[in-house]
Amino acid sequence: METLQQDLINKPVKKLFFHFFFPAVFGMLLMSVNMLLDGIFVGHGVGEIGLAGVNLAAPIFTLILAISLWIGIGGATNFSNYVGEGSLEKARSSFTLALAIFTGLLGIISVVGYLNIETVATWIGANEETLAPTTEYLRILFSFGWILGLQEILSIFIRNDGRPVLGMVSLGVTSIVNVILNYIFIFKLGLGVYGAGLATVIGGAVGVAIFIPHFFKKQIVLNRMAWAWSKQLATRILSIGFPSLLAESGGFILIVGYNLSVAATLGTDGVTAFSVINYLHGFLFLAFFGIETAMQPMISYYHGAKKKLEMQETIALAEKTAVGLGLTLFVIGFVFAPWLVRLFGVNDASIIELAVEGIRLFFISYLFIGISFVYMTYFQSVGKVWSATVIILCRSYAFFLVYLFVLPKILGVNGIWLSMPIAELTVAILIVFIVRKRVRKQLKVTQVHSSSH
C-alpha cells in the first residue's frame, strides 16, 4: 500500500514522469489501434463503402471513450489527492462511486441509442449508400461498447494505483485478440462490418479480465472496496473530469463537422478520404492523452501533498514532451502519407490524392495540440475546472467551428483540412503568452510563500 506513495515522495520527477508516460502513451495507442485495425480489415475485406460506414460510426466510439475519461480522470484525480493526504478510505470510495456513475451513464446511452439506431446513424452523416454498414457497427457499439469503456476506466485507476504497465499489457493483449478475430470474422466467416465490431469488444473483454488480479494484491490501495459515498464526492468526480469529457467529445464534434463538410463538398469520395485521416487521427491523437495520464497522478498527488516545486518540474517536463511528440507525429504524417493511405486498401486515385493532401495539412495540428493538453491537465489536477474547461471549449469547439465555417469559403478543400490546425495554433498562442506566465508566477509565489514558513 505504501509503494506508490514512496515512489511519489522519493523518485526524481523526471524518472517518475516517464514511468507513467511511456506505458500511458503506448496504452492509449494500443486502445485506439482497435479502431484503426477495424478500418484496415474492413477496407481490405469489405470495401470502401464499409470503411466509410465504420468511420461514420466512430463518433459513438468516441462518446464511449469520452465518458470513460470523464468519470475515470475525475475519480482518479480525487483518488490521488486523497492518497496524497493519506485518506485511503476516501480514495477507495472515489473508485467505487466512479464505477457506479459510469455504469449508470453508459446504461442509459446504450439503451436509448440501440432503440433509435437508424436515427442516430442518419444524424451522424449516413446516407442511403452507407446506412447499412453504419448501423451494423453501431449495433455492436450500443450493445457491448460499455466493455471498452470499462477497460479504459479501470486502466486509469490502476495506473493511479501504481501499476501503469498493467494497463499497457491489457490493451496490448486486446489488440492482439482484435487482430486475430478480425481476420477470422471478416475473411473466414464473412461477417463484414459486424464482425469487425464484434472482434473489438471481445478483445476488450479479454483486456478487462487481465485487470482482475490487480485488486487482490496486498501492496496496493485498491485491495478492498469502500462505500463512503456522498453527493459532494460525486460532484467532485463529475466536475473535475468534465474537461476530459469535453476534450474527447471535441473529437465527436470534429468527426461530425468534417463528415458533414466533406460530404457536402466532395460527396462519398470525400467521406472515404476523411475516414482514412480520421482513423489515423483517432490513433495518434490519443498519444496526447498519454501526457494527460502521466501528469495527472503526479500533479494530483503533489497538489494534495503541497509539493509545489515538483509541480513546476512536472509541467516543464510535460511541455518538452508535448512539443517533441507533436513534431514526431507531424513528420510521420508528412513523409509517409501515401503509404498510410494505401494501408487501408484505398485504390481510387482521386480518393488517394484527397487523403494524402488532407493528412499533410491536418497533421500540422499536432505541432500545437500538446500545449493545450499540458495546461488543461494541470488545471484539472489541481481542481481548477473552469480554467481547464475554457481551454477545451476554445480549441475543440469555438475556434474550430468558426474556422470550419469560414476557411473552406476562402481556401476551398484545403480550408477544411486546415480548420483544426489553425484552431490549435490560435489556442497555443493564447496559452503561451497568457496562461503559461500566470501559472509559473502562481507556483513561484506559492513556493516562496510555503518556504518562508
TrEMBL record:
GO BP annotations, alphabetical order: response to antibiotic
- What does the record give as the organism's lineage? Bacteria, Bacillati, Bacillota, Bacilli, Bacillales
Entry keyword set: Antibiotic resistance, Cell membrane, Membrane, Transmembrane, Transmembrane helix, Transport
Q: Which Pfam families match?
A: MatE
Q: Where are the transmembrane segments?
A: 16-37, 49-73, 94-117, 137-158, 165-187, 193-216, 237-260, 280-302, 322-341, 361-378, 385-404, 416-435
Q: Which family does it belong to?
A: Belongs to the multi antimicrobial extrusion (MATE) (TC 2.A.66.1) family. MepA subfamily.
Q: Where in the cell is it found?
A: Cell membrane
Organism field: Oceanobacillus bengalensis
Where are the coiled-coil regions?
Answer: none
Chief subcellular location: membrane
Q: Which GO terms describe its cellular component?
A: plasma membrane
Regarding the membrane, this protein is recorded as: Multi-pass membrane protein
* Source organism superkingdom: Bacteria
Recorded hits in InterPro entries, A to Z, give: MATE_fam, MATE_MepA-like, MATE_MepA_subfamily, MdtK-like
Keyword GTP-binding applies? no
Report if keyword Metal-binding is assigned.
no
- Single GO term (MF): xenobiotic transmembrane transporter activity
Q: Which residues form the signal peptide?
A: none
What name goes with this protein?
A: Multidrug export protein MepA
